[in-house]
Amino acid sequence: MAFAEVQMAKAARGVYPRYDLDNQSCVTYCAQVLRAGGVSDIPLETMSGIKWLLQAHG
Q1: Which residue in 27, 29, 32 sits closest to 50, CA to CA?
Q2: With the C-alpha atoms ordered 12, 17, 20, 23, is the resulting torsion angle positive or negative?
Q3: pTM of the predicted model, to two decimals?
Q4: Is the separation of the CB atoms in 33 and 4 below 8 Å?
């Protein structure tokens, strides 16, 4: 939860990028959260992230 709050605060201040389908989507957000939790091999791009998620948890 703390990670999400920090990212929301950064977006509000204009420090964190705005929504972008390719590089700043709900999938990339999940990838960032997973990386913060220790998952190092999930891609940070939307389509690559979707493929990784489906292969890993399909």
Answers
A1: 27
A2: negative
A3: 0.66
A4: yes
Query: Could you tell me which residues are beta bridge partners of residue 24?
Result: 20
Contacts of 19 (CB under 8 A, 6+ apart): 25
- Alpha-carbon distance of 12 to 37, in angstroms, equals 23
Render the burial of 18-50: b for 16+ CB within 10 Å, e for the rest. Answer: eeeeeebbebbbebbebeeeeeeebeeebeebe
- Would you state the structure tokens that stand for residue 20, as one six-digit string? 């972008």
Determine the pLDDT at residue 19.
72
Low-confidence ranges of the chain (pLDDT < 70): none
Greatest CA separation for the chain: 36
Contact in structure between 7 and 16 (CB atoms under 8 Å): yes
